[in-house]
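[job 0412] stage=fold_complex status=start
inputs:
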Amino acid sequence: MNHKNQQLLQSAYDELQQRVTRFSAVEQKLKDTQDQLDHELSLYKRLSHFNSTALQLNNANSINQLAVETIVDILEVEAAILCVKDCSTGSKSVHTEGIPNTDITKFEFYTVAEFVDITDNPTKVKFVDETFFSQIPELNAYAKGALLILSDEKAAIEIGLLGLISKQKAPLFRTFCSNQETIFQIFGQQFLSLSSSHIQNTKIQNQLNEINISKIELTKLSLIARNTNNNVVIANAHGEVEWVNDSFIKTTGYELDEIRGRKPKDFLKRDVQSEEEHNRLIKALQEKKNVTVELINYTKSGVPYYNHIEIIPVFDDEGNHINFISVQKDVTHEVKARNEILKINKRFETIAEKSQIGIWEWETSTQQTIWNSILEKQLGITRNILPEDFYTYWKSCLHPEDKYGVFENLHDFINSNEILLEYEYRIIRKNDFKIRYINSLVIAERNAKGEIVKLIGSNLDITEKHEAEVKVENLKQYYESLFHHSPSQKIVLDSQLNISFINNSFLKYQPEWESFIGKNMLDLTQQPMGRQQLKNLRRLVQKVSDAIDFKKLIHYSDTFFTPTDKQMYRLVNVFPYFIGNDLQYVIINAVDISELKKTQKTIVTKNQELQKLNNELDNFVYRVSHDLRGPLLSIKGLVNLILSVEELDDNLQEYIHLIDTSATRLDGTIQEILEFSRNARLEIHRETFNVREMVQSIFDDLRFTFEDHLTMTYESSCGDMIFTDKYRLSTLLKNIIGNAVKYRQTSDNESFVNFSLAETDQKYIITVEDNGEGIAEENIGKIFKMFYRGSNTGIGTGLGLYICKEIVEKLGGSLEVVSEFGKGSKFMITLSKK
Amino acid sequence: MLQFYSASTRIVNTKRSVSECLEIALQDVTESPSVLLFNASVGHDFNEMVDYAKSLQPNAQILAASCCGVVGREGVSESMKDMALMAITGNDFAIAGSSQIFGYNSYEECRKMAIQLKEQKEGINMLYFLASGIDINNTECIRAFEEILGAEVTIFGATSSDNMKGYVSYQSFGNEVMEHGAFALAFCDPTLSIDTQATHGFLAIGEPLTVTKSHDNIIEELDGKPAWPTFLARLGLPETAECGNSIPVGALAEVLSKSDAKEYGNRHLLRVVTKHEGDAIFYATSCPVGTQLWLTVRDEERIFTEMDRMVNAMIERAQGKKPIAVFHADCLARGRYLTNRVLKEELVHQMQTPFYSDGVCPPWLGMYGFGEFARLNGKNTYHNYTTALYVIYRD
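[job 0412] stage=fold_complex status=done
writing structure:
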């Protein structure tokens, strides 16, 4: 085989290869065609399945749902929408299949149809694409669709069918073809016919049902008219009685034969009664309208009764008035009961008005509210409000911050089985925009199912009470704050002796008491605690009990250890507060007196030390004075001896006199120091003695110290006996009277020194008055000071009046002087009798 | 101990379809199912299906895969709204899944799943594997599972598909719906054993095409020319044709060893092309340079006789045991695109009847997908264009 032949052979072989394989492709096309036919048959079978299944269904919804699924099935699309419109009623029923998370009411088919040109053949299948869907927001996820809109005028029905393929899944689905158009068209017609006949059947069925119901109703009505307890009267178009039931005969006593052809008013009515009701009845009868009235009628025997009358005019099919039917009921009992209720209501309203309680009543059936004038004032209603608008108005009054809570409360209450709700809220009063606090009580009337039939409520304006509570609360907080910031420790017990408050100062030292808040004081002793703490607690409980029993403040002191183990002393006051005989609370106030205790201790120690020093000093002064006086008296004795020697020259004699004077003066000083020391050192020794004798003795001693004339007098308004320290009084009077003598007016022959004694219940009053030199005003304040000497010329030591003052103070009295320079002085001494 | 219950339906509404499957499958069952395994056509909303199934059976783990049609004990259905269910009770199982599996990472993802399965349960003796059939390297999947679980563990299952468009496929695992996912349901019930076999009945014809440039599962050139146009030209299809056009006629055949061919009843193993990108063909397994690929033609008679041969061989191996459940994977090109409805139903009847017990079909879950796993001459193998049966017995 040459090369060329070989090439030809190879080429022919290759061609053969391709023919064989291409044959497969051709064969596949045949298979595809066969499959298409086969598949088409399947689709028709599905259609047939729909028909057979739908015919077995009675429910329109089930048929429609089956239909929408069949659209998906026969068109082999992803999703479908079906809409059926009943043109006689305008109602639409929309069904979907395969459309995720949709609100099917969005798909109003007749809106969709507006985007499709169906003018040429409105009943033909339309294939739509993305351009179409882009105009409908709800369907813009879809890429392809088949739309069919059909109607049956006779059955007054329109249907819309739409098969859909989404953009996302479009590659998986076949392109619409004519076969699908045909099968869809057939399906549409079948469904329309099915729906039409279903609707017709339903309508016929409904009419049959209505007829049956009417027949049953008629039978029932006839039975009711005969057997009802209400009185039934059938009258002709002129109002003349044609028929009455047994109940009417029983109530009125009239037999049918007696009243047939008569008008009811002619035999039931006797007196003129409510003109308004009567006129209303006449007008309705003339206008051939339904009317309901309540009149007083009379039985045949003349007994009056309240008659509730409903009159219904009856017309034939042509609208001609043929009869009146009157249904009457003897409501005498009801009227009486109603009048009684009205009276009670009136009383109740009066109470509500006096108590300023707003009252309202709301009925579920009418959604209307009635209310009283107090409620209007509470809400500040400034205009007329309709009963059905009241709830809205009330809502608008609610304080914005309370609205949610109020609605939640009401909602929970309505949905519960409770019959009573009480709650508080704020409103903004409409007329002055003031915030008011309302306490509201709501009572529910429920039916057997627990549903609300009626709500009755009362509103009480509690603004003032609320404000007072706020003030009290603020005050309480203020006092709590004060208590907390007080350095003293405080506990407050309530009337049951429960611990209601402990301040920070207390808790600082005894923090474990924080856990006692809310507990009863008397139970605390059962708590585990240390010995000292328990002792203090028991004592406190006892003191609280005493304070309550005696209704008075009780003080005591205790000691305790702080958390840092430091011992502290405190003064505890237990104060029970009563209103009348009712205990309100108990305040326990403890003050830290640790420092005071410490100071007291120091003072006592210092006093003791000082006492000791004083004693030592007194002893020293006494001993020194005593020891000095001995040698001094020796000197004076020697001076007197020297003076008794006659041959002393004049100068020497003068010197010796000077020595004697100085020695005498020194002796005086030492004696006064001794007096002072005695007064300080010796205990008071009171006794009863004769003061006249004492004064007389002093006068006598002094009488020899002067030569000029001086009148000394004694007088007493209370007798001469006196009970005091005799020795000290003697020293005191010697000094005072001695000074009066010493500083007398020597030039005046009328000089005097007067002593007088008086007494009160508590004290003795001694006065020593003279008309001597007197004391200059500027010196009066100084005369009782130690070593003050009023005159340089005198021989005084400057200790006399100082000792007097000391004595008077020791004896619990006083010493005062009134003096005028050049005219005299008056010393007033008071001495305590005890 | 695991128990199996099945049902199938073609109700259009997804929720009602789920309800009906559960009602039929579990009508006499008191125990709550632990696994619900759904096969469903792409016309169903998979999210709705999984959510609703979960709401009805909250204790069950839901697994689902898309397909071109289902086969149940009720028969065959190939529409846009088919659904089939295998409900499983008992706890002798483990589940793992992957949300992103492709040709390039098939080995790694399957290895991860195998490790997860092994960590969950011991004694795994069979593995139902279901993955996206678009862009996957199934030989690598098998290699990864065998490495971890052992070659003795039978891998059965399929690759999920759409309605032969090669556009998208769905898988659901862990209540998520994925487009390139996979799940593996491993059984470790020691009382169970499985027998698998696949058959196709196609004939390789003419001269083979030789792979001259490729990597992994992607063939770039055939006979030194761009792969996809060459492939279309040999099939006599226009240049504008897509995988949906080529799948029914474009079965590619690889030659088998003599021993493998003997059991298979055919000298060739078939492969499908489910995706192309430009001129590159996405093959279903690894395809090294030098591989020879034959075009094939269908032989209806052979398909029927080979089916008989396979079923008889399986019945013979069963030695009188009756199956407690049958899983079934069929190539979508063997469905309505291969034979008419009458013949197809006859074919299915022919494969189901021998497994009946007292005239009742065992629980049966089948799908028309892109590919099938079944043992061949004792080895786990991936097939295309076959009918593969996985018959489970209780020993």
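[job 0412] summary: Chain A touches chain B through 33 residues (CB under 8 Å).
[job 0412] exit 0
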